[in-house]
Amino acid sequence: MATIAGGIDMGDVFLVIFKVIKVFASKVMSGLNVLFVAGTHGNEVNAPWVFDQWNSHPNLIQTYGLNLSTIIGNPIAREKGKRYIDRDLNRSFSERLFLSSNDYEVGRAKELLDLYGPNGRRPCQIVIDFHSTTSCMGCCLVVYGRRFADLALASLLQSRLGLPIYLYEGDASQQGFLVESWPCGLVIEIGPVPQGLLHHNIVRKTLTSLQFCIEEIHKAQADIINLPDKILVHRHLKSMDFPRDSLGNQRAFVHPKLQDKDWLPISYGDPLFQTFDGHDITFIEGSDSELIIPVFINEAAYIEKGIAMSLTLKESWDFKKKWYIHLKEILSRNYE
Amino acid sequence: MATIAGGIDMGDVFLVIFKVIKVFASKVMSGLNVLFVAGTHGNEVNAPWVFDQWNSHPNLIQTYGLNLSTIIGNPIAREKGKRYIDRDLNRSFSERLFLSSNDYEVGRAKELLDLYGPNGRRPCQIVIDFHSTTSCMGCCLVVYGRRFADLALASLLQSRLGLPIYLYEGDASQQGFLVESWPCGLVIEIGPVPQGLLHHNIVRKTLTSLQFCIEEIHKAQADIINLPDKILVHRHLKSMDFPRDSLGNQRAFVHPKLQDKDWLPISYGDPLFQTFDGHDITFIEGSDSELIIPVFINEAAYIEKGIAMSLTLKESWDFKKKWYIHLKEILSRNYE
Known about the structure:
- Two copies of one chain form a homodimer.
- Chain A is an alpha/beta fold.
- The first copy, chain A, contains eight helices and twelve strands.
- Chain A has helices at 10-28, 46-56, 75-80, 95-100, 104-116, 148-161, 200-221, 321-331; strands at 33-38, 67-72, 126-132, 138-144, 165-168, 184-191, 230-240, 252-254, 271-275, 280-282, 292-295, 309-318.
- The first copy, chain A, has a nine-stranded mixed sheet. Chain A has a three-stranded antiparallel sheet with strand order 8-9-10, with no helix packed on it.
- In chain A, strand 9 and strand 10 form a beta hairpin.
- The radius of gyration of chain A is 22 Å and the shape is globular.
- The first copy, chain A, starts with 9 loop residues before the first helix and ends in a 5-residue tail after the last helix.
- At the A-B interface, helix 2 and helix 7 of A face helix 2 and helix 7 of B.
């Protein structure tokens, strides 16, 4: 241990200083740790750029005394301008993979949990994971499953900003999402923007949604929030592939009448795809009583997953007080 | 050599059949070989898809008796959904690289020349190389340097379709373009479209420009063309990088007023970029007498090249008869 002449132990001095800072911080900081992730997919470049700028200009974001951490999900993929190195990081948060896979992203998932997971070195109660899409989705929230705290936080954000909520659940082929590994977590998706491209519109939307997230979390913690009566969700029904030939090649593109029409209802007989020779492929599902709403139409990254779009059903649910109680319980956990 | 009972030499039989076919073909085919390339960049997926569909539905394109070949420039990169494997194929057609580099794309460039180059197995007089861009360029022609035949063909296409011409020349940092290795060659660029995404608008524009290319080449060969008086070119002046901080990181994005404004003139004082904290970076070049026109604004693939946009000067040139004579000479070369 380092000492200086006169026998004062410098380690003790630092310990005292650290304790003083901690006592002072506890007066102004909330004890609530929120993790913001960007670049979970390395070729989605807008949110990582916003985080870099935020780190250089911390006064541009009002933090309301919350302990905020930012991290780039997949820094190696970001450096290479690729979605991922070995596999999709946002399908890599799985105990099964942790035990069986040596893929870079599985190691990175463990690393992120070691750093910021509920049992990590700097545990966070809430995670917000920023993504971008080539689909014309605007700014929306993605909720995975029906965890009460997630539904509560999504409701508060929808109530404040009017953002649509895509409720993704019950698809066995898609598992291991990042936000599910934290007590409460949402994805914010912003589009349309090509991969690898910084765009003023996406930067602005990322910044706005980031700021409102912080505000709403702060207000929930401080109990100065008006709870909504209802929540509107677009519940995932299934994903739909492109029409393919016998060799598996894509034999049609998204129909001109459907391209960029995310969030707008379709019904029986509406065109979905068009072939090279001008033949329309129409929607032959649905009924008069149900309006099906496609989202993630023609997302470039989903082509390899065999997804041309996902179909949802719009539902209005009563906001449940117990959701909020659960969120509050998580917010009050002492993670300092 | 294979024979059948009775001593007839099957090799001779095939030779006779081949000669008969060749004589017949010479009556209906033109002797003019045109190569169409798509997927020179593996993540530009629209033209390759159009070529695949064309191969499955040959009657959708009128060929006017020309010998047309299609090829995917970078099939491995296409399969992987990447722009390239080791280096940009469209900067790999260089004798210097052929002698010094083992990169996949350099080998592929040699392979393409062995197949379809002027001294290749099936030599082509003309090459048309289809690209897509994330920039809002519409459909345009790119001419590399001032080869007479290129200028003639570009003039004919501009006269027919009104396409803008981007004349790229004199930039020592960018060399080895594919089309320069053929006696006559043009690039057709179509955008905006994200990388990796099939879009009805780009498919349609690719198909239309492909069909008109074939028609104009046919008409030039048959001398049934009206030569234009003028050609409008956007002559490349220089490329411009994003503003960067001392570490080389991009510190501003394309200004909202400039994004998607390719082909529209800018002048002194107009905004080019905007920083995170809302500071505008303006254009401090140009003069009252010259209008500078930016193109390839915010092309995702050029970020790694340090190009935020390229600046051009719009010029009107007299169409020169000698350009057309040169094109005609190339068209008349016997490559059968």
